[in-house]
Amino acid sequence: MQGDLPDKPRRGIRSFVLRAGRLTTGQQRALDELYPEFGVDDGDAALDLATLFGRDAPTVIEIGFGNGDATWRMAEAEPEKNFLAIEVHPPGVGRLLQEVQARDIGNIRVAMTDAVALLQDRVADGSLAGVRIYFPDPWHKKRHHKRRIIQPGFTALLARKLAPGGILHLATDWVPYSEHMLEVLDAEPLLENRNPDGGFSPQPEWRPNTKYERRGDRLGHETRDLVFRRTDT
């Protein structure tokens, strides 16, 4: 995902590895029966978000939702927003769809695809109220840093997709990655830090704590949030 041109991040280096996770019977059923209703169809056509959700409302994209624990909690707490959740691993998608059905949540749609391709090809510039990326793979080893999703080219793409005033919210429990994130976001001219003092932000009220985060807390990890706003220009 690293790219030198801000308007065209490369697709050659991916920030994720497709793992052969085991699907439970319930997750497979959710994929078979619920993805046709709540999933985004494959294709290259631009997404009409109002048609996709059956209403015109501010839309937030979450990239890499894992098992969806934070996703459904945010959607329940913010019913006035639409949530388009992107994840490539089928077990996590199946689990989120199970929660959507069990909790009768109507403001979530799911895309099981590469986020870069979806944003580049199918999401209109200036159409998003927010983008949220929580605990992306930090790719600890130096030789793998190029795989980190937060790179200048991808950040420029995210900024273009946000409407003026839209919010980009990142969170990580890997301090070296957080510092890299801050450096990249500070350098993007279409974004401004919502923390008036600069640097990292307090955890916003909309981000729920998850099982993954609580595990990190027990291991002594420090979670850092970065909240940036798309400028009006």
Automatic annotation (TrEMBL):
Q: What is its EC number?
A: 2.1.1.33
Q: Which residues bind substrate?
A: 141, 173, 210-213
Give the top-rank taxon of the lineage listed in the UniProt record for this protein.
Bacteria
One family from Pfam that matches here is Methyltransf_4
Q: Where is this region: Disordered?
A: 193-233
Enumerate the UniProt keywords alphabetically.
Methyltransferase, S-adenosyl-L-methionine, Transferase, tRNA processing
- One cellular component (GO) term of this entry: tRNA methyltransferase complex
Reactions catalysed according to its record: guanosine(46) in tRNA + S-adenosyl-L-methionine = N(7)-methylguanosine(46) in tRNA + S-adenosyl-L-homocysteine
Q: Identify the residues that bind S-adenosyl-L-methionine.
A: 62, 87, 114, 137
First-level EC class: transferase
- State one molecular function term (GO): tRNA (guanine(46)-N7)-methyltransferase activity
Q: In which pathway does it act?
A: tRNA modification; N(7)-methylguanine-tRNA biosynthesis
Give the Basic and acidic residues compositional bias ranges.
208-233
Q: What does this protein do?
A: Catalyzes the formation of N(7)-methylguanine at position 46 (m7G46) in tRNA.
Q: Which family does it belong to?
A: Belongs to the class I-like SAM-binding methyltransferase superfamily. TrmB family.
What is the designated name of this protein?
tRNA (guanine-N(7)-)-methyltransferase
Identify the species of origin. Marinihelvus fidelis
Q: Which gene encodes it?
A: trmB
